[in-house]
Amino acid sequence: MDPVVKIRVEGLTFRYGARTVLREVSALFLEGALAAIVGPSGRGKSTFLMALNRLWEEVPGAHAQGRVWVRLDGRERLVSDPSFPATELRRRVAMVFQAPNPLRMSIFNNVAFPLKVMGQRNKRLVAQEVEGALRRAFLWDEVKDRLDEDARRLSGGQQQRLCIARALAAQPDVLLLDEPTSSLDARAAGVIEDLLLTLKRRCTLVVVSHYLEQVERLADQVYEVAHETLEILS
Ligand SMILES: Nc1ncnc2c1ncn2[C@@H]1O[C@H](COP(=O)(O)OP(=O)(O)OP(=O)(O)O)[C@@H](O)[C@H]1O
Predict the structure, then answer these.
(1) Domain range holding 148?
(2) Which of 16, 50, 229, 230 best tests ligand 1's pocket when mutated (most atoms within 8 Å of CB)?
(3) Which of 14, 162, 226, 230 is deepest in the core (most CB within 10 A)?
């Protein structure tokens, strides 16, 4: 069976003010695969991720042109379609940042937060979903007895898995991860890598990474940002 294209990018040009960072970029990302974006610092890797879920709209002076489609519920949706609400897009194409950013609330409430935003009021269902997301993020066994504790007391690696659990609770189709292990020690990074390999069975992953060994271990597709464009390496 031919692989399904989950994200299609055509002619994406991205500017901050008058400065062009990406020019006429095209790329395809496959469903159920992990794609890595590599390349030197400052070339536009994070910028490219932000173009996939319109997060750039929150950045003053940022401007994107071109087309990005994401396949959702069996049909391609144009990311820039004004009738596609940004909140819905970012729930389905979720971002996990380089530095873990737990909310100032308990471990439980961090993961329950997106469910409540989505209108889920049934406490039993919320508790089930929170447990499921924490299990899928390989964190449940470490936190199940301290769910009411402030999430900011967790270790860096645990915080990053909590942020992944928070994104997973909203059942995303695509997870964008910007250097998800760069602030972690080798052991914590290894846990995240194992987690990513498991997650790609249920969603499409696009991961910015500086670590070539990590990319070799994880990636099905590799793109390099070079000369304002994206070139496929493998
Ligand atoms: N808000 C902004 N306003 C103006 N320029 C910006 C802004 N954000 C990023 N840039 C510039 O755009 C370029 C690409 O930045 P980006 O963060 O996408 O690069 P990167 O490849 O992810 O870098 P790194 O590997 O260091 O994280 C850089 O030159 C950066 O200085």
Answers:
(1) 5-232
(2) 16
(3) 162
